[in-house]
């Protein structure tokens, strides 16, 4: 019983995959309203990711900032890095 269900699911996935490949190969597929909306969303999130990546502190920078904060908060200026 389980094997039949899995086989049917596998066949459904294969059929859907083939159908999508055929759809993507059609002329004008990338100019549909749906595809343009998806491309806009991807571009927006790509831009957000890149801006966040460039503005974030690198992991080793966090350690240095913690050491500096520790030095300032404890007022122990004889701390050697």
User: Structural class given helices, strands, pairing?
Assistant: mainly alpha
Number of strands: 0
Largest sheet: none
Strand content: under 5%
**Poorly predicted segments:** none
Return the string of H and E elements.
HHH
Helix count equals: 3
Overall description:
This protein has 81 residues and is mainly α. It has a domain at 2-56. It has helices spanning 2-25, 33-55, 59-74.
For the structure shown, list the relevant keywords:
81 residues; mainly alpha; 78% helix
Brief synopsis:
With 81 residues, the chain is mostly helical.
SSE diagram, text form:
Layout: H1 2-25, H2 33-55, H3 59-74
């Amino acid at each position: 019983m389980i094997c039949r269900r899995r086989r049917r699911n596998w066949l459904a996935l294969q059929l859907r995959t083939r159908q999508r490949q055929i759809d993507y190969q059609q002329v004008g597929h990338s100019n549909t309203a749906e595809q343009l909306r998806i491309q806009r969303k991807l571009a927006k999130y790509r831009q957000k990711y890149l801006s966040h990546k460039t503005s974030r502190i690198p992991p080793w920078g966090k350690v240095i900032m913690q050491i500096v904060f520790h030095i300032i908060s404890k007022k122990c200026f004889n701390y050697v890095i």
